[in-house]
Amino acid sequence: MNSSYSKILILGSGGLRIGQAGEFDYSGSQALKAIREEGIKTVLVNPNIATVQTDETMADVLYLQPLTFEVVSEIIKKEKPDGLLLGFGGQTALNVGLELEEKGILKQHEVQVLGTPVSAIRISEDRGLFKESLAAIDVLTPKSKVATSLHEAEQAIEAIGFPVMIRSGYSLGGLGSGVVHTKDAFIACVSEALSKSPQILVEEYLHGWKEIEYEVLRDAADNVITVCNMENMDPMGIHTGESIVVAPSQTLNNFEYHRLREIACAVARHIGIVGECNVQFALNSENGEYRVIEMNARLSRSSALASKATGYPLASIAAKLALGKRLDQLKNTITKDTTAFFEPALDYVVVKIPKWDIGKLRSANHTIGTEMKSVGEVMAIGRSFSEALQKGVRMLNGGQIELSTHPYHFTNHEEEIGTPTDHRLFALYDYFKKKGSVQRAKELSCIDSWFLNHLKQIADYDRICIGKPLTKERLREAKQLGFSDRYIGMRHKRPEAAIRKIRIRWGITPFIKQIDTLAGEFPARTNYLYCTYSGTNNDIETSGKQPIVVLGSGPYSIGSSVEFDWCAVNTARMLRKFGKYTVIINSNPETVSTDYDESDRLYFEELTLERVQDILDFEKIKGVIISVGGQIAQNLATPLHMNTYPILGTAPHFIDMAEDRGKFSALLGTLSIDQPAWERVTNFKHALSFARRIGYPILVRPSYVLSGAAMNVVRSDEALRKYIDDASGVSLDHPVVLSQFIMGAKELEIDGVACDGEIIVQAITEHIENAGVHSGDATVVIPPQRLYMETIRQTKDIAHKIVRALAITGPFNIQFIAKNNDIKVIECNVRASRSFPFVSKVTNVNFIELATKAILAIPCKGDYETLELNHVGVKHPLFSYSRLKGSDPVASVEMASTGEVACIGDTMPEAFLLSWLATEQNVSQKKVLLSIGGDYSKAKLFEAVKKLEQAGWEIYATEGTHHYLTQRGVGCIFVFKFSEGLNPNIGDIIKKHSIGLIVNIPKGPRTGAETDGYYIRRFAIDHHIPVITNLQIARIFLQCMTDLSVEKIKLRSWQEYMNRT
Amino acid sequence: MSSSSHFIKQKNKLKVKGNVSSAQKNPQEGFFFYKETAAPHDLFRPAELILNTGVRCKGLLSSWSQEVTHGEIVFTTGMTGYVETITDPSYAGQVITFTYPLIGNYGVPAQKYWEHSTISARGVIVSEASINQTHYANITSFIEWLRGNQVPLFLCSDTRALTKHIREHGTPLGTLSASGVGKKHSSTRKFLDPATQNLVAAVSITKKKIYGNGAKRIIAVDCGMKENIIRELLSFDTTITRVPYSYDYSEDVFDGIFVSNGPGDPAMAKETIAILEKVMRQNKPIFGICLGSQLLALAAGAKTYKLPYGHRGQNQPCQDLVSGRCYITSQNHGYAVDEKTLPKDWTVSFRNLNDFSVEGVAHRKKPFFSVQFHPEASPGPTDTRFLFKKFIDLL
């Protein structure tokens, strides 16, 4: 292998989605750092603007461009890299890489794939070849047969027998796989799987077997190690991404552990991995039989977890191995003395718990299984399983929900345990609290009794002991089992703070331990830390350097994602640049902020009041920054302040003033700033009088967000009554907030940074969709394209007033509604917002750098241009509807997107089109299906549709649209709706893939009913046809279809855009 | 970062009194693990681990322990394989601290899976001992097993702090005792150094024993041999004659000699070394593992020395100095061969990549080779199992 590369191309993973999330920012960022350390130039392609890896300081050349074959081919032609890394951008990067190789682009431009050769990747990706290959070295895989047609699948079932698992090849996160028990279900599942993938696998179903995974590294000289093994608490049948996972394995004996390890190494060798891979096993708990389930010949979610769980920098080392380095030539970056050729020994236990957000997506099914639905994860570290598990549960919701205080109600525990949903852990806990037996729970769940016994033990302690009079011994015991002060206080009818006081007085405090990869065997200069009550000594001492603590984002969820990690990482980098001793606290293993080289001390810990206080007490801090980690961090501002911890930036009572709806509203009143009418109601009568006064539609939202009730728009008394009834528990304690829903208005935002109430920098962004789409789901443009100068002037003026009134120091975000130069403020966040990385990278002004300076009172006034740019940036949301069966793919007031991408172009349509392509959709043929509700929308789209016809598009339309178009002379083909049940029917047309694009504009805000529109949208998603549901987006999109072609857009790197004059 | 004095200072804060756990008052609910703060009164009592470094560490000691347990306090970093570890005769004279906090999770299997029919370790120290096991091969719980074999179990929540202390101060001698807890102990407390005893004699078989009926005849010198070595050797076409450490086999009929692992200071095994010296003249293949490697080196004229805190674990990186290939190895040793004293016709064949100590020696011309690590694994990784074949191929 050529070891003297001069320029290496790295493919990122694009927008975050279910099954492919922040872990690839971690892996890509580590790879970029590792390669630059070797003095080699890097080129990165990744349209995910919110990532750390797309920062100016990461790659030498950055392309915020779609990860498509065409675009990457052009970039190769232009940049002429000599090496290509495919293993750091998830399945997206791998798929693009395979296509580049297959179509000869790599050969033509003499680009070498580094690390695992493409031939080996192909074997690992093709289940048939993979099994065949492993059979050659006598490694067992599940009995299975590959099928490319329903007929072949039926033959396979004859040989294997029910139940079977259907899997589709080349998919990420188990998409399109399922367990089937009956012939009918079999036919339905096979048909759907074959519509997405040319081949499927019909496989022996290993229900209830243990699921074990090994992370393997192999160098070009054939040295192999397994960095970590992990055991899924939820056995086979539940996707690893949906499972609670522990590291290291807990229930495997030496023979099993090392036999599987040996096989994992043998598989990596045989397939020819150079770099990293994981190997997944099923292990029969009755007799120790095993099967190799699959292998990922690249970094994965599991490798990110393994990396954080052990402290072994897997991605960085994998990148060096891809360059041809040997493991024994590399250093263990934690001890800095010993070699990278070793296997970490843990002296703690790690528990990963998935974070689901299914409640936000109405009509989506809560059942979990072989497909991934979770949107994030947390990782908890402890010196006992109970401690780590309870920590993990708290990490999911900033401490609001614990095993013992969850808000879920189970009527049939056995059913909940047997048919897993995202609440199964809580159902199990309740079951044990009601004296359910471990044996029965095991029969129902197939979870190993070792885990269940621990859970039962926590439940027993909760039931029997925790409420008894507090003694020192009992308190210590409760803490070792992982109970929080808050819960102990709740049981003793005392506030959390009182328990904390007693606890500290009794000398019961957590001890701080290092993660050193070697279980204490060698001295480690590591700053990677966690806290435990199973200890008597701290590994470290207080730094004495007056640290500044940055609170990270916690788990990713809908609405809080990689952008907050970008903010936290950039804040930490700036603090260190200014010589501040920097401490990060975060609980999310998919992040860059939890790379221990990003801070002076990293606490992989809960972002709860209790634990943050523990750390702040120990560290003797100068201050804590709560404004860059999103809402979980922000929520700690007031409680920390009340406990006298110094909050840096905007004063906590001003934060509260912005967050408390009543106080903020009063403030706006004083400042004579308009706002949509709103009211907090506690009963229907009250709600009705508001509706009478304001008129429909009305936006309704529960103030108690954890109940899972979603925001909605209601348009009638009946709907209002239904909402109030459904949002059970509407009361004085949990009122519902109603606000005026303004139709046909524009929405815009100001992101900015201020110092002592004076704005340092601000950027106005404009939503393409009219108001009513959640800002996180909106398509956003900077600089604004369609705003009146007067609107801009007014919003700036309002921002100025609010910022001054709240004496903001640091980041802020204000959201506005504008209609005919009439501006209303919707909300103000006194923290960094989701769009901070977007505005920073499009304007080339790092807002976080300025915010950090402002917080540190370092002069930062300057002339920052954010309006008059030579280019346009467009940010598109990325949805994961295809993974969430049943969810309605239409943007609404409740956020549903799981990620975002952004591209830059010379014009808005250019940037819009690129950015849309970056969401990994494409229009495969010039055939469009139109189903447009309402004459207003039809009229608005008419010109664009006419141009489509002129450009040679084939147009299909449902009744109303067809009528409208033909009357006005646009030729189109009539199709029946689903409900009409006649041919030609929409269903057939979509199934046969004779459509390249669907435009379905609902009449008004979503009603939630399963209408024809819903079926069209859902069917389109299930058949992978792009569907557009918003009028404003449709107009621009159709315009792009006729006016633009990707080939003609000049591909520029981010640096080229920024350096243009 | 933390100094040893910090450890001493901290341990004074420790005020565990082996209290009756509140959960334990409801025995019908049953705990699934025992730890320093939660263990039944009838099985555990407050006790102290006292080290000759001056440090005392409080915890709970099993009721089946003797008045005072003496031993060398060592730690192992393996995360699984506690049964194989505890039954390894090389731990004779030692109290094993597990750095992994949860031990006993899969119970204990039948004796045929152990590394020896008896337990030679003097005691075991863990943070949390599980009595929650569901493994299909399990026949008894970890606690019952130790009790049945009268192996003292000391529960001490911060095994990491203890490990770091051992690392910083070198392997200490220590005592485990439930008497006089909390009292100011006199500085004259006695520590018995197991290295002054002939530990090999204690764990070696007393009469020779023959296994298998294959073509290759191997003398296996038992200095405390792990059973998996026999299993590995028997997987070839061999007849194994397992002989006591002091047995003179120089007149016997054999094709090759295997020298096993074992406990203690290799220099103590004078008889074994003398026999090896004599038999080396026959130029028949010799393969040594662990103590066997040290004995071979001593017989060749080299010297051994005591490592500060030994290598015990399953993640030790070693490099084959001929091929350059690296392996993850299982290890359990406190002594090493001193490279400088190695005779000219001998060479270092394997080296530890963490501390660069000698992990294997070989004669440059003759078929003598040995490794410091454990190719038989059990516990640990199986990367170097091929060495058995290498040995068999020489015969």
Identify the strand order in the major beta sheet of chain B: 11-13-12-14-15-20-19-18-16-17
Q: State the helical fraction of chain A.
A: 25-40%
Largest interface: A-B, 76 and 73 residues
What structural category characterises the helix and strand content of chain B?
Answer: alpha/beta
Portion in strands of chain B: 25-35%
Low-confidence stretches of chain A: none
User: Mean pLDDT of chain A, rounded to whole units?
Assistant: 92
Most strands sheet of chain B: 10 strands, mixed
Give a verbal description of the structure.
The complex is a heterodimer of chains A (1061) and B (395). Chain A is of the alpha/beta class and 1061 residues long. Chain A contains 37 helices and 38 strands. In chain A, the strands form seven sheets. In chain A, strands 14-13-10-11-12-15-16 form a seven-stranded antiparallel beta sheet, with helices on both faces. In chain A, strands 31-30-27-28-29-32-33 form a seven-stranded antiparallel beta sheet, sandwiched between helices. In chain A, helix 35 links the parallel strand 37 (997-1001) and strand 38 (1027-1028). Chain A is globular. Chain B has two domains: 4-196, Carbamoyl-phosphate synthase small subunit, N-terminal domain (Glucose Oxidase, domain 1), CATH 3.50.30; 199-394, Class I glutamine amidotransferase (GATase) domain (Rossmann fold, 3-Layer(aba) Sandwich). In chain B, strands 11-13-12-14-15-20-19-18-16-17 form a ten-stranded mixed beta sheet, sandwiched between helices. Chain B has a seven-stranded mixed barrel with strand order 2-3-9-7-5-4-10. In chain B, strands 1-8-6 form a three-stranded mixed beta sheet, with no helix packed on it. Chain B is globular and about 60 Å long.
Topology overview:
The complex is a heterodimer of chains A (1061) and B (395).
Chain A: E1 7-11, H1 23-37, E2 41-45, E3 61-63, H2 69-79, E4 83-85, H3 90-102, H4 105-108, E5 112-113, H5 118-125, H6 127-135, E6 144-147, H7 150-160, E7 164-168, E8 178-180, H8 183-196, E9 200-204, E10 210-218, E11 224-232, E12 245-247, H9 254-271, E13 275-283, E14 290-296, H10 301-310, H11 314-322, E15 349-355, E16 376-382, H12 385-396, H13 413-418, H14 424-433, H15 438-445, H16 449-465, H17 472-480, H18 485-491, H19 496-505, E17 511-514, E18 528-532, E19 548-551, H20 562-577, E20 582-586, E21 601-604, H21 609-619, E22 623-625, H22 631-634, H23 637-642, H24 652-659, H25 661-670, E23 678-681, H26 684-694, E24 698-702, E25 712-714, H27 717-726, E26 736-740, E27 746-755, E28 758-767, E29 780-782, H28 789-805, E30 810-819, E31 822-829, H29 836-843, H30 847-855, E32 872-878, E33 899-905, H31 908-917, E34 927-932, H32 935-950, E35 954-957, H33 959-967, E36 973-974, H34 986-991, E37 997-1001, H35 1012-1022, E38 1027-1028, H36 1031-1043, H37 1054-1059
Parallel strand pairs in A: 1-2, 1-4, 2-3, 4-5, 18-21, 19-20, 19-22, 20-21, 34-35, 34-37, 35-36, 37-38
Antiparallel strand pairs in A: 6-9, 7-8, 7-9, 10-11, 10-13, 11-12, 12-15, 13-14, 15-16, 17-18, 23-26, 24-25, 24-26, 27-28, 27-30, 28-29, 29-32, 30-31, 32-33
Helix pairs in contact in A: 1-10, 1-11, 5-6, 14-16, 15-16, 18-19, 20-30, 24-25, 26-27, 31-36, 32-36
Chain B: H1 4-13, E1 33-35, E2 44-51, E3 56-62, E4 68-76, H2 82-86, E5 94-98, E6 102-103, E7 123-126, E8 128-130, H3 142-148, E9 153-155, H4 159-169, E10 173-177, H5 199-203, E11 209-211, E12 216-222, H6 227-234, E13 238-244, E14 256-259, H7 270-280, E15 286-289, H8 291-300, E16 303-320, E17 326-338, E18 346-352, E19 358-363, E20 368-371, H9 386-394
